[in-house]
Amino acid sequence: xxxxxxxxxxxxxxxxxxxxxxxxxxxxxxxxxxxxxxxxxxxxxxxxxxxxxxxxxxxxxxxxxxxxxxxxxxxxxxxxxxxxxxxxxxxxxxxxxxxxxxxxxxxxxxxxxxxxxxxxxxxxxxxxxxxxxxxxxxxxxxxxxxxxxxxxxxxxxxxxxxxxxxxxxxxxxxxxxxxxxxxxxxxxxxxxxxxxxxxxxxxxxxxxxxxxxxxxxxxxxxxxxxxxxxxxxxxxxxxxxxxxxxxxxxxxxxxxxxxxxxxxxxxxxxxxxxxxxxxxxxxxxxxxxxxxxxxxxxxxxxxxxxxxxxxxxxxxxxxxxxxxxxxxxxxxxxxxxxxxxxxxxxxxxxxxxxxxxxxxxxxxxxxxxxxxxxxxxxxxxxxxxxxxxxxxxxxxxxxxxxxxxxxxxxxxxxxxxxxxx
Length: 421
Known about the structure:
By secondary structure, the protein is an alpha/beta fold. It is built from 18 helices and 12 strands.
């Protein structure tokens, strides 16, 4: 039986306020709350609530046959908790159906997987903890920021215990291979790779209205794939439903009709973890250099394609060791917010998607002013004169202590559970 695996990605960054050179050392709050709230509320009203209601109806009308997965960044979860808790409640209701899976990702929707393995691991754990707290189940499948993936990143994902991840259909990686199979990591067969069908995903996400696309036509295309191509992975931003494709285009009616036409063609819907458990990989994929799901080249150019982006990203992650010694909650929160990949994309000369700056240089200068103040605050706690070796020793000691505490807490839980029996 052929199956469709839906991945819906949700991320809304916290917008930075206009921060001038003369604000450094004087003003320690960096965010444009009005613009951030406005963008969240627009997404909630135009997309999230209606889309969640639609998916709930689809699950009920199909007797649980429709299934889909979500990757929601930790920053977005916190914004929804603050500005639109009703959306979190609707996701909890979807979770109870058993037809929805929540995936792990870096909490800040960051580029940490490219720059700092330890920071990447910290953020992924932080995100998985949050997902488990909200929805009662710890993620076992992974969705990296902007679908950034390489063999090295895949190895880190596997070591953290995740069984599958999704990557994009990059022609220079797949070659003649079809995206409609399960693959495995180049040298770690435990990690299964789902490949996004970029054409069908983008037909729905960006070309829906222009193509006058119908559910019947869309399912017909899928039914015409070769018989041995059993899995069609469709990944897109959740704002497709109601924002990118407004309600008047018929996008919600399209969504509602999908299960009906799929069942007509004996096409099912699956969750990534369930499908990974029961399906063997047909081959391995080697990805020596990071790929993403953006642009024709599917690389990191949108975030790291010019000198401005490269300079600020290196400066940021050079401070990781010092930051993670701190217990200052406001500082640590700012550290996460400043890592959102969006800030780096606004500095792109060619593809500054979602920017509110006039130029890439404006975005760079605003960010660097904020970052300069952040560094001054960090220096008051951990002066930059401290040698890196000394910092590394401190971090190692703290990490070992935290791991030992976590181990002891798990043992206590087991003993309590045993005693309760």
